[in-house]
Amino acid sequence: MRKTTKKTAPLPEDVLQQMAEELNRLSSSIYEDIKSKAILKVLSNLTAITPLQETMMSQLSNALFETEEQEQSTENVKIPGYI
Fold this sequence. Notes:
Layout: H1 13-35, H2 39-75
Helix pairs in contact: 1-2
């Protein structure tokens, strides 16, 4: 069963790409901060990841289910004269 997510307007692809770049930057920063034992910076960056992840998951899940629904609706189309 599909988890109900709040419908939001789809974000442009370039915005999703920028969000992915920011997640990558945060992850790299976390790695470096752990090596330098900057625990407060690590915690701060981990906190920043959550809203980005949730937004991207929501956007991409909605896009996936919309695509699947469109594919299913076109599979049920019958062309007259064909079996």
